[in-house]
Design a protein that fits this description.
Largest sheet: 7 strands, mixed
Number of strands: 26
Helix content: 25-40%
Number of helices: 26
Structural class: alpha/beta
Radius of gyration: 28 Å
Shape: globular
Strand content: 15-25%
Distance between the termini: 22 Å
Amino acid sequence: MPELDELLRDPGLRVLAGDLNHGFLAPAVLDRAGNAVIRLPHIPLVTEDLPASVRDGHLRQALTCALDLAEAHGCRLVVVENLGFSDMRARGRERYGSAEWFRNVVCGMPTAQVRDRLVAMAARRSVAVAGVPGACSSIWGVEHRQAPRSTNLSTKQHEVSGHTAAAVVLGRRALGHSARRRPRASPGVTAPDQRIEAAAATWDDGCEAGEDRPCRPGGCDVLFATPLRDGNVAGMSDILQAAVAGASGDELASMEMPESYRAAFVRRDEAQMFAGLDSSEKDPRKSLHVGEVPLPELAPDEAYVAVMASAINFNTVWTSIFEPLPTFGFLDRLAKESVWGGRHALGYHVVGSDASGVVLRTGSLVRNWKPGDRVTIHCNYVDDQDPTAHDDSMLALNQRIWGFETNFGGLADVTVVKANQLMPKPAHLSWEESAVNALCNSTAYRMLVSRNGAPVAQGDRVLVWGATGGLGSFAVQYVLNAGGIPVGVVSSPEKVELLRALGVDAAIDRSAAGYRFWKDEHTQDESEWRRLRTDIRTLVGDDPEIVFEHPGRETMGASVFVCKRAGTIVTCAATTGYMIEYDNRHLWMRLKTIKGSHFANYREAWDANRQVCEGRILPPLSAVFGLPDVGEATFQVQRNLHEGKIGVLCLAPHEGLGIDDPELRERVGEDRITLFRRYDA
């Protein structure tokens, strides 16, 4: 972590280290050389026999006290033992702590939430948090640190406790020092002594004679986390701070909602700002604003959700460049339907159709969700009073996409959604990894798994355009899971390698192939369609039974041509243009079908989310931006400068928070979950 490395190189750095124990937290302040410089009292943490909500409050109070001490003494880094106790029983106390009380206090919350709470609370104060291995911290603390050479912490009247000494050991590890005392090296002695002397040449640590010399920073395996990036999160209300810190549902329910919140939006009075410009000249960075907006009233069937992270979809691109028309017309039509619909017709449109977060409030008709629930949000906004919605809600006459055809979207610190948009958050994923799935994953599920699309059968060949993009990356995973054979079309050798890592053997690099499906603006070239068909047959032996089509104008003619006799072209979106052309002879004479598909109903979205929750579908997160940089993130999607999905941190202070099931994450595989982050495609 560059930010933490830079922090550790500051010679004036002070560190607050804490040893978590039964009934108290033992803190100590260390300077950059690893010397304990200030003695601090133990912080009470009595949680035995307390209900969960009260226990949570006691923990938050203890962490707040620790952070207050850190600020008071100028500490920019807080160090604790690594809060990851999944294998605690097997490894014993000196690795992770063993006693039953310790497991109840920390693991029972569970530990991931304790860690996230501390990191989030510290980030609000621009304080970093590091977790270090706790091996032998108590033993070496008593042996080497309970009676330090400097006497500023120890007097005859008051000796330093073994727990405080253990805290000193944890702090020294984070700073790159060893825990044990060793004599200063003398020239011409032993190899270990020579290594100590070499380290001393790198760092002027100010240790007294007899103190051990520092190692390089980071050698202690610092595990988390970095300070809050400047400007990523503005000042927040108490309830939003509590949500970030992992407060219980009871605590959240007792706190007042804010009058306003931070959001990304476009303005009605700027809807003509790009008039006369070509689409390629319209810049989302000029039209998307980030600022405070009033909190709308909550309808009986809705919920307020504190948004930890969101994502960029192409509908945010359309909204931001006011194409094919300004979305304020959608909001005005919604306003005519009901009193509650009237809230949406405003002078601004809060955008965003993906989110993960924490439920803050629920309306009087909501029965399956409560404050404190961790959720992801799908974007199907539908009225259950419409009879056309009850066979398939996507057929409803007034079906809409939240954050595109409604206001109060997910690129914000708070969002307002219908209760039937909520789904469980995948416990093994971080907030940003959870936020990028719902829209594209549900869309791909309906297109390739549901009976409402073109469900893949074993052995089916499926041509997938943009196979490493947001939609395509989910599509190839569903084809593989169904026993089909995906043929992925991508635009670079690096993306071909990414497809291989996903398990796709048949990949076409269209940039290398140099296809030119259009001779000019008005004329397509059938010979190029034939060349594509030949390449597909060479790879998989036959024409594709299904074509997963979403680029639109650029590729539809080729898709209809290469599809197998009696096959299906299933299509959604149209990122290269809505006005498509194809040779109808290749459709009707070969009995092919074009099937339109649009997002997913609640059951399809729920089932698609379950695939993510169980680790069978991986999140294609490739990059993460802060909410203030939403314009740049949208610009990258508009210009196709990304792969997979771009996540946006809203309330989450930094990446990596929100993981509640590290054991499942380990089973799925860190390398697989972070696959898109590791390919410079």
